Amino acid sequence: RSGEMAKLTQLIDNEVFRAYATYAAIVLLKMMLMSLITAYFRVTRKAFANPEDTASFGKGESAKKYLRTDTDVERVRRGHLNDLENIVPFFGIGLLYALSGPGLSMALLHFRIFAGARILHTFAYLIPLPQPSRGLSWVIGYVVTISMAYQVLKTALYL
After folding, report:
1. Where on the phi/psi map is residue 50: left (φ > 0), alpha (ψ -120 to 50), or beta?
2. pLDDT tens digits along 126-153
3. What is the overall mean pLDDT for the chain?
4. What does the domain layout of the chain look like in residue ranges?
5. How far is CA 101 from CA 17, 110, 135, 154, 157, in A?
6. Model's pTM, two decimal places?
7. Is the distance from CB of 76 to CB of 123 less than 8 angstroms?
C-alpha cells in the first residue's frame, strides 16, 4: 500500500517506536528536571538573573545584591544547555531512526546507551565527577546519535 500514511495505531503497535517513545520521554523528563534544579540552586544560593525575581528579598538597592551569578547555578545551567544541544537532536534523529525499520534489539541498544550516557553526564556535571567521566559520557551519547543518523541515511538514501 505504497503512498498511504500509516495509521496511528500501527505506529503505536510498533515495538521500536514504543521503545523510542519510552527513552525519548526519559531523557526529555531528565532535561526538564534540570530546570527545576536550576531554580532550586537559584533560590538556595539567592542568585537571580532578573530584578523581579528578587522582590521577595527586598526592594531597590537591598535587592540588587541578589542580582548576581553563582558558580553552582552556572554549572547547572551549563549542564542544561548541554542537554538541549544533545537531547533535541536525539529526539529528531531517534524518531527518524525508529521509523526507518531497525531491529528492536539494535534500537534498544541505541536508546538505552544514549539515555544512560545522558544520565551519567548529568551526575558528572552536578556532583562533579572527575574528568574524563563527563567528557566520555558526552562522547558516547553523541556517537550513538551519529550512529542512528548514519543508519537512517543508509536506509533511506535520497541525497
Report:
1. beta
2. 999 999 999 999 999 999 999 999 999 9
3. 91
4. 1-157
5. 9, 14, 31, 12, 14
6. 0.88
7. no
